[in-house]
Fold this protein.
Amino acid sequence: MALRTPPAAPAGDLTLLNPGPGLVVLEPQRAALLLALDDLFTDLAAEVGAPAVVGPPLLPAEGLARLDYFRNFPHLGVTAARFPDDAVEALASGAPVAKQPVRPTGYLLPSATCYGLLLSLAGQDVGPGLRLTAIGRCFRNEEHYDGLRRLWGFHMREVVYFGTAEGAREHLARSKEFIETLAGRLGIELSYQPANDPFFDKSGSRAKLMALDPVKHEFVATDGTAVASVNRHRNFFGERLGITGEGAVAHSSCTAFGVERWVHAMVLAHGTPEEALRQVRDVRGC
Amino acid sequence: MALRTPPAAPAGDLTLLNPGPGLVVLEPQRAALLLALDDLFTDLAAEVGAPAVVGPPLLPAEGLARLDYFRNFPHLGVTAARFPDDAVEALASGAPVAKQPVRPTGYLLPSATCYGLLLSLAGQDVGPGLRLTAIGRCFRNEEHYDGLRRLWGFHMREVVYFGTAEGAREHLARSKEFIETLAGRLGIELSYQPANDPFFDKSGSRAKLMALDPVKHEFVATDGTAVASVNRHRNFFGERLGITGEGAVAHSSCTAFGVERWVHAMVLAHGTPEEALRQVRDVRGC
């Protein structure tokens, strides 16, 4: 390139304002941490032979309803909505946006990355077994937000397995080993604990069943932040969505990484974003 | 890792279902194309010294209103909405989701990546000049959708400049040269054309002004798909948001890449995703 331009001021001098509760803009160092950490998570996908796909940006409400999503998590979902025609006309004439109604589109923002992958496999046969990985932006309504620990919108990387019960269990065992080894190399201390999904009705039967026979375990940092989880679905999604493995109802399991939470945990463990980034780059070998 | 797992079926044998109009799931080859192409776009950012940030996942409606967004593009925006408390209770008891009302949250899904970056710099001084880059998922309501050419939700990479009028012009000239060189190496034929933003009122004064003195130019593939654009903002955003450069109202400009559209253009030019991927990998040198 022949054109010369005077050097720009480094972005490090600036404050990038966050737009609202639970929403952040990541300045260059934390952005670099997010990208570098996700790159390390993809090593798990490479190890287990999970090709990367790009999941859908929105999920059909009817599809989620098939999975009892609204019975279990009606409070979580952020829906995609539109201004009706009269509101569009009013806005074009300068009416205030805060006063305009919105109508549902029939779609929601994902609250976990695996839903989009599960729905995309409805009615399919996965043969002896299938693994996929994807990263997506997820959204969850929360009672309160807290820095990078608890966000309204955040990145979730998942590595998902479909196939046999044995394969589903093995996927999670392998994932657990990967996460514990990675955390050790990154200098983060994690404890492995059974957990509950964030049910709306915490005293309901499904929540009680999960507490008795946990299908979800989390990896928890020293300040109580759950940074990753391994989730055993049994054959629930296979049954609801007609996903089979060589003709039998498919079992599935997934491993999830809350990427901003790992950024948080790294800065917590190492003191500054610079130190955290140095550590991640050492582990990556670059 | 000591655990051995039987190999999974390659995902190439499967059909990954798209969830609805304008929404796609990218199978492994197109996913790889998306990632590899975006990696090439980041070369422009590296060349011009634009560090990567991660923009916010949602934008405040009030912030967009300051930019006349709803006067100009009231039809485009996909809003983030929530179920009110009575709907949450109803859903928990099994009521159908299609019948539930939703309420605005005061936030929208981005329809372009630069808005989040612009809003994050409100009231800031960028010194002699500043460049940033980010990729984000964007959403636009359209009259019709069409494969990867026209999506409801898609990825947009932007490289944005803030500072002087001369710097803003030079940013776009450099971007144009980069895009034309890259397209040549990738074997895509693009034509450079003035364009209009998708105003709601196409006969309105702002649309007419843009037609007379275009501030937007597009790079258009042989089938008419605009895959990238260079946009001159003059000092509009600087003035509306109180962004200054060494005390003077900042000028800005941005270069945008519609990443799925480049995937589309590559497959169009090279025949199959496999050939397209081979071409991209040759250019990347890996």
Residues 186 and 279 of chain B are 6 Å apart (CA to CA). Chain B touches chain A through 109 residues (CB under 8 Å). The domain at 28-78+110-284 of chain B is CATH 3.30.930.10 (BirA Bifunctional Protein; domain 2). The first strand of chain B starts at residue 59 and ends at 60.
